[in-house]
Amino acid sequence: MKKWTFEANAGGDSIGGSSYVHNGNIQVDHGAIQSEKRIKYPEMTRGDIELFLLSHDHLDHCGGVPVFLREHPESKVMMTKTSFEGMNFLLKDSVKIAESRAEIDLLQGRKPEPPLFSLREVESLVDRVDFIGDTSWFSPIAGHKISFRSAGHKPGAAMFLMVFPDGTRVLHACDVSVDERALVRGAGIPQDFLNPDVMVVESTYGNRELPDRAKEKARLKEVIRKVFARGGKAVIPHFASTLIEEALPLAEAGFPVHVDGMGRDFTHLYANSAPWCEQDKPFKLSDFGSLFLVDGGCKEEDRFYRRDLVRQPEPVVIVSSSGMLEAGPSVGYVEELLEDSKNAVILPGYQAKDTQGRKLTQLQKGEKITFFHQYVKKVEGQQPELKEYEVTRQINADVIPFKLSGHSGGDKMAKWICRINPKKVVTVHGEPEAHEGLKERTQRLKKDIEFFTAKNGETLEFVFV
Protein backbone atom coordinates (compact mmCIF):
# COMPACT_ATOMS: atom_id res chain seq x y z
CA MET A 1 0.00 0.00 0.00
CA LYS A 2 1.27 3.46 -0.96
CA LYS A 3 0.21 6.77 0.60
CA TRP A 4 0.73 10.41 -0.44
CA THR A 5 -0.50 13.75 0.93
CA PHE A 6 -0.57 17.20 -0.64
CA GLU A 7 -1.29 20.66 0.71
CA ALA A 8 -1.47 24.03 -1.01
CA ASN A 9 -0.66 26.83 1.45
CA ALA A 10 -1.65 29.17 -1.40
CA GLY A 11 -1.81 28.96 -5.18
CA GLY A 12 -4.26 26.05 -5.06
CA ASP A 13 -7.76 27.24 -6.01
CA SER A 14 -6.34 30.69 -6.79
CA ILE A 15 -3.37 32.25 -8.55
CA GLY A 16 -0.66 33.83 -6.43
CA GLY A 17 1.67 32.82 -3.64
CA SER A 18 2.28 29.31 -4.94
CA SER A 19 3.38 27.18 -1.97
CA TYR A 20 2.94 23.41 -2.03
CA VAL A 21 3.86 20.59 0.36
CA HIS A 22 4.28 16.98 -0.80
CA ASN A 23 4.01 14.21 1.79
CA GLY A 24 4.84 16.64 4.60
CA ASN A 25 8.57 16.74 3.78
CA ILE A 26 9.07 18.28 0.32
CA GLN A 27 8.14 21.89 -0.38
CA VAL A 28 7.75 23.26 -3.92
CA ASP A 29 7.88 27.07 -4.24
CA HIS A 30 6.95 29.80 -1.76
CA GLY A 31 5.77 32.83 -3.69
CA ALA A 32 4.36 36.28 -3.12
CA ILE A 33 0.67 37.17 -3.33
CA GLN A 34 0.62 40.31 -5.44
CA SER A 35 -3.10 41.00 -5.75
CA GLU A 36 -2.93 43.69 -3.07
CA LYS A 37 -1.02 46.95 -3.08
CA ARG A 38 1.00 45.47 -0.23
CA ILE A 39 2.58 42.14 -1.01
CA LYS A 40 1.47 39.24 1.17
CA TYR A 41 2.90 35.78 1.67
CA PRO A 42 1.31 32.34 2.18
CA GLU A 43 0.96 30.67 5.54
CA MET A 44 4.29 29.24 6.61
CA THR A 45 4.69 25.47 6.39
CA ARG A 46 5.12 23.91 9.82
CA GLY A 47 7.25 20.92 10.72
CA ASP A 48 10.55 19.79 9.24
CA ILE A 49 10.88 20.17 5.48
CA GLU A 50 13.75 18.05 4.20
CA LEU A 51 13.81 19.44 0.66
CA PHE A 52 12.80 22.72 -1.01
CA LEU A 53 12.45 22.79 -4.81
CA LEU A 54 11.90 25.96 -6.86
CA SER A 55 10.05 25.56 -10.14
CA HIS A 56 11.01 28.96 -11.60
CA ASP A 57 11.80 32.59 -10.90
CA HIS A 58 8.46 34.39 -11.08
CA LEU A 59 7.54 36.32 -7.95
CA ASP A 60 4.32 34.40 -7.38
CA HIS A 61 6.54 31.29 -7.02
CA CYS A 62 9.79 32.63 -5.55
CA GLY A 63 8.89 35.92 -3.83
CA GLY A 64 8.83 34.44 -0.32
CA VAL A 65 11.82 32.09 -0.58
CA PRO A 66 14.04 34.06 1.87
CA VAL A 67 11.26 34.00 4.48
CA PHE A 68 10.72 30.27 4.00
CA LEU A 69 14.40 29.40 4.22
CA ARG A 70 14.84 31.54 7.34
CA GLU A 71 12.08 29.51 9.01
CA HIS A 72 13.43 26.22 7.66
CA PRO A 73 17.21 26.10 8.13
CA GLU A 74 16.98 22.30 7.95
CA SER A 75 15.89 22.23 4.28
CA LYS A 76 18.08 21.28 1.36
CA VAL A 77 17.43 23.71 -1.51
CA MET A 78 17.52 22.90 -5.22
CA MET A 79 16.76 24.78 -8.45
CA THR A 80 18.31 25.49 -11.83
CA LYS A 81 21.01 28.15 -11.89
CA THR A 82 19.00 30.25 -14.36
CA SER A 83 16.06 30.30 -11.94
CA PHE A 84 18.37 31.21 -9.05
CA GLU A 85 19.94 34.16 -10.90
CA GLY A 86 16.53 35.43 -12.02
CA MET A 87 15.15 35.05 -8.50
CA ASN A 88 18.10 37.06 -7.23
CA PHE A 89 17.20 40.00 -9.51
CA LEU A 90 13.56 39.95 -8.41
CA LEU A 91 14.21 39.57 -4.68
CA LYS A 92 16.74 42.42 -4.59
CA ASP A 93 14.21 44.60 -6.39
CA SER A 94 11.54 43.53 -3.87
CA VAL A 95 13.76 44.68 -0.99
CA LYS A 96 14.33 48.02 -2.70
CA ILE A 97 10.59 48.52 -3.27
CA ALA A 98 9.75 47.55 0.33
CA GLU A 99 12.35 49.95 1.73
CA SER A 100 11.00 52.75 -0.46
CA ARG A 101 7.43 52.08 0.69
CA ALA A 102 8.56 52.12 4.32
CA GLU A 103 10.22 55.52 3.79
CA ILE A 104 7.07 56.89 2.18
CA ASP A 105 4.90 55.54 5.02
CA LEU A 106 7.13 57.26 7.56
CA LEU A 107 7.00 60.60 5.71
CA GLN A 108 3.20 60.33 5.47
CA GLY A 109 2.90 59.78 9.21
CA ARG A 110 2.04 56.08 9.00
CA LYS A 111 3.77 53.27 10.81
CA PRO A 112 6.16 51.80 8.26
CA GLU A 113 6.10 48.10 7.42
CA PRO A 114 9.71 46.93 7.36
CA PRO A 115 10.78 44.56 4.58
CA LEU A 116 10.15 40.93 5.53
CA PHE A 117 13.66 40.03 4.42
CA SER A 118 16.87 41.96 3.93
CA LEU A 119 19.32 42.38 1.10
CA ARG A 120 21.85 40.42 3.17
CA GLU A 121 19.44 37.48 3.36
CA VAL A 122 18.99 37.55 -0.41
CA GLU A 123 22.74 37.68 -1.00
CA SER A 124 23.30 34.74 1.35
CA LEU A 125 20.89 32.44 -0.50
CA VAL A 126 23.68 31.28 -2.79
CA ASP A 127 25.21 29.46 0.18
CA ARG A 128 22.03 27.38 0.61
CA VAL A 129 21.33 26.38 -2.99
CA ASP A 130 22.40 23.30 -4.93
CA PHE A 131 22.12 23.97 -8.65
CA ILE A 132 20.58 21.42 -10.99
CA GLY A 133 22.42 21.45 -14.31
CA ASP A 134 20.94 18.49 -16.17
CA THR A 135 18.01 16.06 -16.32
CA SER A 136 19.60 13.07 -14.62
CA TRP A 137 18.03 11.25 -11.67
CA PHE A 138 19.44 11.85 -8.20
CA SER A 139 18.66 11.13 -4.57
CA PRO A 140 18.70 14.40 -2.56
CA ILE A 141 17.26 12.87 0.62
CA ALA A 142 17.16 9.31 1.89
CA GLY A 143 14.81 7.00 0.01
CA HIS A 144 13.72 9.60 -2.57
CA LYS A 145 14.58 9.94 -6.27
CA ILE A 146 13.97 13.12 -8.29
CA SER A 147 14.53 14.35 -11.82
CA PHE A 148 14.16 17.89 -13.20
CA ARG A 149 12.85 18.45 -16.75
CA SER A 150 11.96 21.61 -18.66
CA ALA A 151 8.48 22.93 -17.95
CA GLY A 152 8.58 25.02 -21.15
CA HIS A 153 7.31 28.08 -19.25
CA LYS A 154 10.50 30.15 -19.48
CA PRO A 155 14.27 29.57 -19.51
CA GLY A 156 15.28 27.64 -16.39
CA ALA A 157 11.72 26.64 -15.46
CA ALA A 158 11.41 23.03 -14.32
CA MET A 159 8.87 20.34 -13.57
CA PHE A 160 9.84 17.48 -11.27
CA LEU A 161 9.07 13.79 -11.00
CA MET A 162 9.44 12.69 -7.38
CA VAL A 163 9.62 9.03 -6.38
CA PHE A 164 8.89 8.60 -2.68
CA PRO A 165 10.29 5.79 -0.49
CA ASP A 166 7.14 3.64 -0.88
CA GLY A 167 7.39 3.92 -4.67
CA THR A 168 4.68 6.57 -5.17
CA ARG A 169 5.50 8.58 -8.33
CA VAL A 170 4.35 12.23 -8.37
CA LEU A 171 4.86 14.70 -11.21
CA HIS A 172 4.71 18.38 -10.23
CA ALA A 173 4.20 20.67 -13.27
CA CYS A 174 3.44 24.28 -12.39
CA ASP A 175 3.94 26.59 -14.27
CA VAL A 176 4.12 24.85 -17.64
CA SER A 177 3.70 25.49 -21.37
CA VAL A 178 3.67 23.05 -24.26
CA ASP A 179 4.15 25.84 -26.84
CA GLU A 180 7.53 26.60 -28.37
CA ARG A 181 8.88 30.13 -28.00
CA ALA A 182 12.02 32.05 -28.87
CA LEU A 183 14.16 30.79 -25.97
CA VAL A 184 12.47 27.60 -24.83
CA ARG A 185 10.77 24.66 -26.47
CA GLY A 186 7.49 23.48 -25.01
CA ALA A 187 7.39 20.92 -22.22
CA GLY A 188 7.97 17.45 -23.63
CA ILE A 189 6.69 13.96 -22.84
CA PRO A 190 9.68 12.34 -21.09
CA GLN A 191 9.37 8.56 -21.34
CA ASP A 192 10.49 8.07 -17.73
CA PHE A 193 7.82 10.55 -16.56
CA LEU A 194 4.91 8.57 -18.04
CA ASN A 195 2.16 6.94 -15.97
CA PRO A 196 2.74 8.65 -12.60
CA ASP A 197 0.45 7.88 -9.70
CA VAL A 198 -0.33 11.59 -9.37
CA MET A 199 0.19 14.65 -11.54
CA VAL A 200 0.01 18.06 -9.84
CA VAL A 201 -0.58 20.51 -12.67
CA GLU A 202 -1.55 24.12 -13.22
CA SER A 203 -5.04 24.99 -14.47
CA THR A 204 -4.40 28.66 -15.34
CA TYR A 205 -6.26 28.66 -18.67
CA GLY A 206 -7.96 25.31 -18.16
CA ASN A 207 -11.40 26.57 -19.14
CA ARG A 208 -10.44 28.39 -22.32
CA GLU A 209 -8.18 28.40 -25.32
CA LEU A 210 -5.54 30.97 -26.19
CA PRO A 211 -4.99 32.26 -29.72
CA ASP A 212 -2.43 30.30 -31.72
CA ARG A 213 0.97 31.69 -30.69
CA ALA A 214 2.40 31.70 -34.22
CA LYS A 215 -0.62 33.67 -35.47
CA GLU A 216 -0.33 36.13 -32.57
CA LYS A 217 3.37 36.68 -33.35
CA ALA A 218 2.52 37.29 -37.02
CA ARG A 219 -0.22 39.74 -35.97
CA LEU A 220 2.25 41.56 -33.71
CA LYS A 221 4.71 42.00 -36.58
CA GLU A 222 1.91 43.28 -38.82
CA VAL A 223 0.86 45.84 -36.17
CA ILE A 224 4.48 47.04 -35.86
CA ARG A 225 4.77 47.37 -39.67
CA LYS A 226 1.66 49.57 -39.74
CA VAL A 227 2.97 51.73 -36.88
CA PHE A 228 6.31 52.14 -38.65
CA ALA A 229 4.60 52.93 -41.97
CA ARG A 230 2.89 55.94 -40.39
CA GLY A 231 6.10 57.08 -38.69
CA GLY A 232 5.14 56.00 -35.19
CA LYS A 233 6.74 54.17 -32.30
CA ALA A 234 5.56 51.12 -30.40
CA VAL A 235 6.03 50.49 -26.68
CA ILE A 236 5.49 47.00 -25.27
CA PRO A 237 5.20 46.91 -21.45
CA HIS A 238 6.24 43.42 -20.43
CA PHE A 239 7.31 41.27 -17.50
CA ALA A 240 11.06 41.59 -17.00
CA SER A 241 11.92 37.90 -16.97
CA THR A 242 10.25 37.06 -20.27
CA LEU A 243 10.17 40.25 -22.32
CA ILE A 244 13.12 39.07 -24.41
CA GLU A 245 10.84 36.28 -25.72
CA GLU A 246 8.88 38.93 -27.65
CA ALA A 247 11.84 41.21 -28.37
CA LEU A 248 13.97 38.59 -30.15
CA PRO A 249 11.50 37.66 -32.93
CA LEU A 250 10.91 41.37 -33.65
CA ALA A 251 14.66 42.05 -33.82
CA GLU A 252 15.10 38.97 -36.00
CA ALA A 253 12.51 40.44 -38.37
CA GLY A 254 14.66 43.56 -38.66
CA PHE A 255 12.74 45.98 -36.44
CA PRO A 256 14.97 48.18 -34.23
CA VAL A 257 14.13 46.96 -30.72
CA HIS A 258 15.32 48.62 -27.50
CA VAL A 259 15.06 46.63 -24.24
CA ASP A 260 14.79 48.54 -20.96
CA GLY A 261 14.16 48.05 -17.26
CA MET A 262 15.07 44.85 -15.44
CA GLY A 263 14.55 43.09 -18.76
CA ARG A 264 18.13 44.14 -19.53
CA ASP A 265 19.40 42.01 -16.64
CA PHE A 266 17.42 38.98 -17.76
CA THR A 267 18.57 39.44 -21.35
CA HIS A 268 22.21 39.36 -20.24
CA LEU A 269 21.44 36.35 -18.03
CA TYR A 270 19.95 34.28 -20.84
CA ALA A 271 22.63 35.33 -23.33
CA ASN A 272 25.43 34.37 -20.94
CA SER A 273 23.95 31.16 -19.50
CA ALA A 274 24.53 27.70 -20.88
CA PRO A 275 21.15 25.94 -21.26
CA TRP A 276 20.62 23.43 -18.45
CA CYS A 277 18.61 21.09 -20.71
CA GLU A 278 17.94 20.58 -24.38
CA GLN A 279 14.58 22.39 -24.20
CA ASP A 280 16.23 25.73 -23.36
CA LYS A 281 17.73 27.44 -26.41
CA PRO A 282 21.04 29.35 -26.39
CA PHE A 283 21.36 32.77 -27.99
CA LYS A 284 23.96 35.49 -28.41
CA LEU A 285 23.26 39.21 -28.42
CA SER A 286 25.75 39.59 -31.26
CA ASP A 287 23.45 37.53 -33.50
CA PHE A 288 20.78 40.24 -33.37
CA GLY A 289 22.04 43.43 -34.98
CA SER A 290 18.82 45.39 -34.38
CA LEU A 291 18.48 44.51 -30.70
CA PHE A 292 19.72 47.20 -28.31
CA LEU A 293 19.82 47.41 -24.52
CA VAL A 294 19.07 50.79 -22.94
CA ASP A 295 22.28 51.33 -21.00
CA GLY A 296 23.66 54.79 -20.43
CA GLY A 297 26.00 53.60 -17.69
CA CYS A 298 24.20 55.35 -14.81
CA LYS A 299 20.70 56.54 -13.86
CA GLU A 300 21.25 60.03 -15.21
CA GLU A 301 22.57 58.76 -18.56
CA ASP A 302 19.70 56.25 -18.79
CA ARG A 303 17.31 59.18 -18.43
CA PHE A 304 18.93 60.98 -21.37
CA TYR A 305 18.92 57.77 -23.43
CA ARG A 306 15.18 57.31 -22.86
CA ARG A 307 14.43 60.95 -23.64
CA ASP A 308 16.35 60.79 -26.90
CA LEU A 309 14.72 57.47 -27.80
CA VAL A 310 11.16 58.80 -27.65
CA ARG A 311 12.12 62.08 -29.36
CA GLN A 312 14.07 60.61 -32.27
CA PRO A 313 12.24 60.90 -35.60
CA GLU A 314 12.84 57.28 -36.63
CA PRO A 315 10.33 54.54 -35.73
CA VAL A 316 11.36 52.25 -32.91
CA VAL A 317 10.06 49.39 -30.76
CA ILE A 318 10.62 49.72 -27.00
CA VAL A 319 10.12 46.64 -24.82
CA SER A 320 10.31 47.42 -21.11
CA SER A 321 9.16 46.32 -17.68
CA SER A 322 6.88 46.58 -15.85
CA GLY A 323 4.23 44.60 -17.67
CA MET A 324 1.19 46.09 -15.90
CA LEU A 325 2.40 49.73 -15.89
CA GLU A 326 2.65 49.90 -12.11
CA ALA A 327 6.34 50.91 -12.06
CA GLY A 328 9.50 50.83 -14.11
CA PRO A 329 10.53 52.65 -17.29
CA SER A 330 7.51 51.37 -19.24
CA VAL A 331 5.34 53.92 -17.42
CA GLY A 332 7.47 56.83 -18.63
CA TYR A 333 7.49 55.54 -22.20
CA VAL A 334 3.70 55.23 -22.24
CA GLU A 335 3.31 58.74 -20.82
CA GLU A 336 5.54 60.11 -23.60
CA LEU A 337 3.97 58.19 -26.49
CA LEU A 338 0.28 57.87 -25.59
CA GLU A 339 -0.97 61.18 -26.98
CA ASP A 340 0.42 60.72 -30.51
CA SER A 341 -1.98 58.85 -32.81
CA LYS A 342 0.92 57.50 -34.87
CA ASN A 343 2.09 55.41 -31.90
CA ALA A 344 0.89 52.16 -30.35
CA VAL A 345 0.91 50.68 -26.84
CA ILE A 346 0.96 46.90 -27.09
CA LEU A 347 -0.04 44.88 -24.02
CA PRO A 348 1.05 41.28 -24.65
CA GLY A 349 0.03 39.62 -21.42
CA TYR A 350 -2.31 39.46 -18.46
CA GLN A 351 -3.33 42.76 -16.83
CA ALA A 352 -4.44 42.27 -13.22
CA LYS A 353 -7.44 44.01 -11.70
CA ASP A 354 -6.84 47.58 -10.48
CA THR A 355 -3.55 47.98 -12.38
CA GLN A 356 -2.85 50.83 -14.78
CA GLY A 357 -2.43 48.29 -17.56
CA ARG A 358 -5.94 46.90 -16.98
CA LYS A 359 -7.36 50.44 -16.82
CA LEU A 360 -5.71 51.35 -20.13
CA THR A 361 -7.38 48.39 -21.85
CA GLN A 362 -10.79 49.47 -20.53
CA LEU A 363 -10.61 53.10 -21.70
CA GLN A 364 -11.45 54.33 -25.18
CA LYS A 365 -9.54 56.62 -27.52
CA GLY A 366 -10.02 60.23 -26.53
CA GLU A 367 -10.43 59.37 -22.85
CA LYS A 368 -7.75 60.22 -20.30
CA ILE A 369 -5.65 58.17 -17.89
CA THR A 370 -3.69 59.47 -14.91
CA PHE A 371 -0.43 57.97 -13.67
CA PHE A 372 0.53 58.62 -10.05
CA HIS A 373 4.16 59.02 -8.95
CA GLN A 374 5.84 59.10 -5.55
CA TYR A 375 9.48 59.33 -4.66
CA VAL A 376 11.65 60.44 -1.79
CA LYS A 377 13.96 63.34 -2.58
CA LYS A 378 17.22 63.15 -0.67
CA VAL A 379 19.70 66.02 -0.42
CA GLU A 380 22.78 65.75 1.72
CA GLY A 381 22.37 67.71 4.95
CA GLN A 382 18.59 67.97 4.57
CA GLN A 383 15.64 65.91 5.75
CA PRO A 384 14.22 63.50 3.14
CA GLU A 385 11.20 64.99 1.37
CA LEU A 386 8.26 63.13 -0.16
CA LYS A 387 7.49 64.24 -3.70
CA GLU A 388 4.19 63.32 -5.35
CA TYR A 389 2.86 64.23 -8.76
CA GLU A 390 0.39 63.09 -11.38
CA VAL A 391 0.72 62.76 -15.15
CA THR A 392 -2.54 62.79 -17.13
CA ARG A 393 -2.56 61.80 -20.79
CA GLN A 394 -5.26 61.59 -23.43
CA ILE A 395 -5.36 58.25 -25.22
CA ASN A 396 -4.71 58.95 -28.89
CA ALA A 397 -2.33 56.09 -29.65
CA ASP A 398 -3.62 52.62 -30.46
CA VAL A 399 -3.85 50.40 -27.38
CA ILE A 400 -3.72 46.79 -28.55
CA PRO A 401 -3.89 43.72 -26.27
CA PHE A 402 -2.32 40.42 -27.31
CA LYS A 403 -2.36 36.92 -25.82
CA LEU A 404 1.31 35.92 -25.76
CA SER A 405 1.31 33.83 -22.62
CA GLY A 406 3.89 31.58 -21.00
CA HIS A 407 1.01 29.18 -20.30
CA SER A 408 -0.97 26.96 -22.66
CA GLY A 409 -4.73 26.84 -23.19
CA GLY A 410 -7.05 24.17 -21.85
CA ASP A 411 -7.23 21.87 -24.90
CA LYS A 412 -3.45 21.69 -25.31
CA MET A 413 -2.99 21.05 -21.60
CA ALA A 414 -5.64 18.31 -21.65
CA LYS A 415 -3.93 16.51 -24.54
CA TRP A 416 -0.55 16.80 -22.78
CA ILE A 417 -1.96 15.41 -19.53
CA CYS A 418 -3.48 12.46 -21.40
CA ARG A 419 -0.15 11.66 -23.01
CA ILE A 420 1.55 11.71 -19.60
CA ASN A 421 -1.27 9.40 -18.45
CA PRO A 422 -1.43 9.89 -14.67
CA LYS A 423 -3.81 7.84 -12.50
CA LYS A 424 -4.91 10.97 -10.63
CA VAL A 425 -4.61 14.70 -11.33
CA VAL A 426 -4.49 17.44 -8.69
CA THR A 427 -5.12 20.86 -10.24
CA VAL A 428 -3.54 24.02 -8.79
CA HIS A 429 -2.83 27.62 -9.86
CA GLY A 430 -6.23 28.59 -11.23
CA GLU A 431 -9.62 30.07 -10.46
CA PRO A 432 -12.43 27.55 -9.70
CA GLU A 433 -13.84 27.66 -13.24
CA ALA A 434 -10.38 26.98 -14.68
CA HIS A 435 -9.98 23.85 -12.51
CA GLU A 436 -13.36 22.56 -13.67
CA GLY A 437 -12.65 23.43 -17.30
CA LEU A 438 -9.38 21.49 -17.37
CA LYS A 439 -11.07 18.50 -15.76
CA GLU A 440 -13.88 18.51 -18.35
CA ARG A 441 -11.52 18.88 -21.31
CA THR A 442 -9.23 16.11 -20.10
CA GLN A 443 -11.99 13.65 -19.20
CA ARG A 444 -13.57 14.10 -22.62
CA LEU A 445 -10.37 12.54 -23.94
CA LYS A 446 -9.70 10.04 -21.15
CA LYS A 447 -12.58 9.36 -18.76
CA ASP A 448 -10.67 7.21 -16.28
CA ILE A 449 -8.29 9.96 -15.09
CA GLU A 450 -9.53 11.13 -11.68
CA PHE A 451 -9.40 14.86 -10.90
CA PHE A 452 -9.09 16.70 -7.59
CA THR A 453 -8.82 20.43 -6.87
CA ALA A 454 -6.24 21.56 -4.32
CA LYS A 455 -8.01 24.09 -2.09
CA ASN A 456 -5.85 26.52 -0.17
CA GLY A 457 -5.19 25.35 3.38
CA GLU A 458 -6.70 21.88 2.91
CA THR A 459 -4.83 18.57 2.78
CA LEU A 460 -5.48 15.90 0.16
CA GLU A 461 -4.60 12.32 1.03
CA PHE A 462 -4.45 9.40 -1.40
CA VAL A 463 -3.90 5.70 -0.77
CA PHE A 464 -2.76 3.45 -3.63
CA VAL A 465 -3.20 -0.29 -3.30
Fold and architecture overview:
InterPro entries: Beta_Casp (IPR022712), MBL (IPR050698), Metallo-B-lactamas (IPR001279), RibonucZ/Hydroxyglut_hydro (IPR036866), RMMBL (IPR011108). This is MBL fold metallo-hydrolase. GO terms for molecular function: hydrolase activity; RNA endonuclease activity. Pfam families: Beta-Casp, Lactamase_B, RMMBL. Keywords: Hydrolase. The termini are close together. By secondary structure, this protein is of the alpha/beta class. Helix 12 links the parallel strand 19 and strand 20 (450-453). The chain has a seven-stranded mixed beta sheet with strand order 6-5-4-3-2-1-21. Strands 7-8-9-10-19-20 form a six-stranded mixed beta sheet, covered by helices on one side. It is built from twelve helices and 21 strands. It has helices at 59-62, 65-71, 81-107, 119-124, 213-229, 243-252, 263-272, 299-311, 329-337, 356-362, 410-420, 432-445, and strands at 2-10, 19-22, 26-30, 51-53, 76-80, 129-132, 145-150, 158-163, 169-173, 198-202, 234-237, 257-260, 291-293, 317-320, 344-347, 368-377, 385-394, 398-401, 424-428, 450-453, 459-464. It is globular and about 70 Å long. It folds into two domains: 2-208 and 406-464, 4-Layer Sandwich (Metallo-beta-lactamase, Chain A); 213-401, 3-Layer(aba) Sandwich (Rossmann fold). The longest helix has 27 residues, at 81-107. The mean pLDDT is 95. Helix 3 runs antiparallel to helix 7.
